[in-house]
Every structure is written in structure tokens, then in C-alpha cells.
Design a protein that fits this description.
This protein has about 260 residues and is of the alpha+beta class. The protein has one domain (about 10-250): Creatinase/methionine aminopeptidase superfamily (Creatine Amidinohydrolase, Alpha-Beta Complex). The chain has helices at about 10-30, 35-50, 125-140, 150-165, and strands at about 55, 75, 80, 95-105, 110-115, 175, 185, 205, 210, 220, 225-230, 235, 240-245, 250. A hairpin with a 2-residue loop joins strand 13 and strand 14 (about 250). Its cofactor is Co(2+); Zn(2+); Mn(2+); Fe(2+).
Length: about 260
């Protein structure tokens, strides 16, 4: 299903996006050396509940997971990159942490992910990974406008990732979003320009470039959820929910007080 929002529905999607961004911003500030991943999940649950929203992950049970997920946020550390199941692990200085959050608020979903380094350490490899996914995300957003094709977005994202020297995995990528978290169309992190679905105003997309340093192969943890790099290398993941408008793309998952692109 591809869902197109009306002008009267879009403000509710904006509110969901702001909530997701505000929660991620708060959790980033609390994720210090010594913080337990289970505390991050608990704090996310408290903020979601206080806003009258629901997490998209608690009952999430797709065919590839060992569901239901049972937690409120994905927490991936170092070589973990996607669907990181919160568990009893304490963060250390220099860890590369990815937080991925999706909620439904007032009937609409928003989805965003941030990767950052815990503590004052700044390992060069981790900094480069994070900056590359952020630049790829920005390139995908810049390519999003009415009449553009999905392949244009995928090509823009993939060009940044490949020029930085990272292998690209095409198993998981971006997706449509609306009243539910995962909808058509799929947005691959590489592709051919001019191909695929033509974007229309009112379409919401979650764009999410992610990379691993030296492999495009994933392995699954015994928990049945957490996906890691097959070589144990570090990973990073950046994601925004955007709305296609008459003028281009509006980023919905920005914290309160930010100016949408």
C-alpha cells in the first residue's frame, strides 16, 4: 500500500515526527559511559507514554525477526546496525551507538535513526562512518521532489556511500510510511536514476542510509533480531521521515524549534 496524505492530515504526521526527534535528542544526551541499554529503552517508553503515543516496535513481528520485538526502541552498538534489541549492556566511552525509533502519534507514524559516539572519544573511523551516512541522507532528501523517481533518491544516496568507499547492502533500506510504520514503496540505498515510482505531494518516506566499514554482509544475533556486520566492523545508520510537498521535501523528524528542510 502506498498512502498519500492530504493537507489536513500532514500536521498530525509533523507532530509524530517532532515527538520522535525530541525523544532521540533527549536520549542522546542521556547516553553516556555507564548508561545501560535497558535504561534507554525504559526512558523511551516513559516519554512515548507521556505523549500519548505508542511505539511501533513493541508488537512488531515481521517474517525476518523472532517476534514480537517487545521493546520500544532499537539500540545498536558498534558492529550492530539494524534492529538492535535492547539488552543488559553498559555503554563505554568510544562506543558507536545507533538509536532507531518509530512511534504512532495521533494516527500517524514517524521513523528516525541517529548514530553517535558515546563520551569524549572520537575514533576517526567511526566519525567517518557517521558523517557519510548523514551526507547520504542529505543527498537523498535533496533529490526528493514531485515527479522525481525513487531511483533518483536511491542513486543520490548510493553515490555518496560508494564514493566514500563503503560496500552497500540492498537487503534493508528506506520505505513508505503513514498510518503504519512500513509501507510501500521500498527505497533502496543504491539504484538507477529515472527508474521506479514517481513521487507525489503527500507521500511520506523514511530514508535510511546505513553502512558497514568493510562488508555488505549481515549476520543475526541469537536474539533473532540484532543485525551485525559479518566481519565485526563498525557500522552507522542515519534516518529521517520526509514528506513530499509541492516545493520538494519537508523533513518531519526534526527536534522542536528546528527549521524543516
Amino acid at each position: 500500500m502506498i498512502e498519500i496524505l492530504t493537507a489536513t492530515e500532514l500536521p498530525r504526521a509533523r507532530a509524530a515526527g517532532t515527538l520522535v526527534a525530541d525523544i532521540l535528542h533527549t536520549l542522546r544526551g542521556r547516553a553516556t559511559a555507564g548508561t545501560n541499554l535497558l535504561d534507554l529503552d525504559r526512558w523511551a517508553a516513559e516519554m512515548i507514554r507521556a505523549a500519548g503515543a505508542t511505539s511501533c516496535y513493541v508488537d512488531y513481528a515481521p517474517s525476518f525477526g523472532r517476534g514480537p520485538f517487545g521493546h520500544h526502541i532499537c539500540t545498536a552498538v558498534n558492529d550492530a546496525v539494524l534492529h538492535g534489541l535492547p539488552h543488559d549492556r553498559v555503554l563505554a566511552d568510544g562506543d558507536l551507538l545507533t538509536l532507531d525509533l518509530a512511534v504512532v502519534h495521533h494516527g500517524y507514524a514517524a521513523d528516525s535513526a541517529i548514530s553517535f559516539i558515546v563520551g569524549p572519544s572520537r575514533p576517526a573511523e567511526s566519525v567517518a562512518l557517521i558523517e557519510t551516512t548523514e551526507r547520504a541522507l542529505a543527498a537523498g532528501i535533496a533529490a526528493a521532489r514531485p515527479g522525481a523517481r525513487l531511483g533518483d533518491l536511491s542513486h543520490a544516496i548510493g553515490t555518496v556511500l560508494s564514493e566514500a568507499g563503503y560496500p552497500i547492502n540492498l537487503e534493508f533500506g528506506g520505505h513508505g510510511i503513514g498510518s503504519t510504520m512500513h509501507q510501500d514503496p521500498h527505497v533502496a540505498n543504491d539504484g538507477r536514476p529515472g527508474r521506479g515510482y514517481a513521487l507525489r505531494p503527500g507521500l511520506l518516506l523514511a530514508l535510511e542510509p546505513w553502512v558497514m566499514v568493510d562488508t555488505d554482509e549481515l549476520v543475526t544475533d541469537p536474539d533473532g533480531w540484532t543485525l551485525r556486520s559479518a566481519t565485526g566492523c563498525r557500522t552507522a545508520h542515519s534516518e529521517h521521515t520526509i514528506a513530499i510537498t509541492e516545493d520538494g521535501a519537508e523533513v518531519l523528524t526534526l527536534p522542536s524549534g528546528s527549521v524543516a528542510g
